[in-house]
Amino acid sequence: VALLIGSGVGLLYLIVRRRSPPRPEGVLEWTGATLALSAVLMGGGIAALTLAESSTGEEKAPSVTGTEAPGLRFRLVDSNEPKTLREYRGQVVLLNLWATWCPPCLDELPQLNRLQKTYESEGVIVITISDERRSTIRRFEREKLELQTVSGYLPQDRSWPAPYNRVQQSRPYSFVIGPEGIIRDFWAGAGNYSTFVEAVRPYLSNAVSSDKPSLRKDVQ
Q1: Which DSSP helix (H) or strand (E) runs through 22?
Q2: Which of 82, 117, 76 is nearest to 214 (CA)?
Q3: Crossing angle for the helix pair 26-55 and 2-16, to the nearest 10 degrees
Q4: How far apart are CA 110 and CA 14, in angstroms?
Q5: 125: β partners
Q6: Nearest Cα to 181, choosing from 206, 158, 149, 148?
Q7: Are 66 and 178 in contact (CB under 8 A)?
Q8: Collapsing DSSP states into helix, strand and coil, what is residue 2?
């Protein structure tokens, strides 16, 4: 778009720069000026349409708040046990989709650990899932940070179902799912501890508290 507009303006300037008043003369110059002006207008139109589409992109994407959380099948990183999101009904689930190569994801992981540790007894389950290989995530947990969350991975032969496939455009991506399995909130980008607490706290009264000492299993 910039090249189109710049070319049009440049051509127009070359045509009229020596004219006083600045106007084309002759058929050739008028034709060139018309083409130059058309290029400028076309470039401006494309730019306007692009900006309009960008500004309304989120509005076009259907909101999932208040809808039932679609099923999601994954495997636990530590034991490789298959799990489904439905198994955590009755608790407040903060589902966080991340990757080891994503700096904002790594920034918020300690806060997710803290949230799980603090609110587990009140019925909060933090599930962190990456679509990387299990070996990659296990190496990350050994060398960088051990996750106190339900740490899962999406097998290579599966793809993200909607609306979780939004993670393909932005990471991290988080969903808050109430005890009854309804998506209550979602957002793109890293959060902090206060953000997470404010997101889950309204739904704790209906959650089933957990007396389990830990969500993680020993690696066999």
Answers
A1: none
A2: 117
A3: 150
A4: 60
A5: 93
A6: 206
A7: no
A8: helix
**Over the chain (220 residues), what is each successive 10-residue block's mean pLDDT?**
69 66 68 73 70 48 85 96 96 98 97 97 96 97 97 94 94 97 96 96 79 41
Do 128 and 196 meet the contact criterion of CB atoms below 8 Å apart?
no
Q: What DSSP string runs through 169-191?
A: TSSSEEEEE-TTSBEEEEEES--
CB-based contacts of 186, cutoff 8 Å, min separation 6: 64, 65, 163, 173, 174, 175, 176
- Can you point out the beta strands (E) in 6-81? 73-76
Which one, of 62, 53, 57, lies nearest residue 162 by Cα?
62
Burial class (CB in 10 A: 0-12, 13-18, 19+), 173: buried
pTM exceeds 0.85, yes or no? no
Q: Which two tokens stand for residue 94?
A: 């903060």
d(CA 68, CA 49): 34
Nearest to 5 by CA among 37, 27, 31, 33: 37
What contacts 24+ positions apart, CB below 8 Å, involve 146-150? Answer: 147/77, 147/109, 147/112, 147/113, 148/113, 148/116, 148/117, 148/214, 148/215, 148/216, 149/96, 149/112, 149/113, 149/116, 149/215, 150/76, 150/83, 150/88, 150/125, 150/126, 150/215, 150/216
Joined tokens for residue 175: 């969903």
Crossing angle of helices 193-200 and 103-119, rounded to 10°: 50
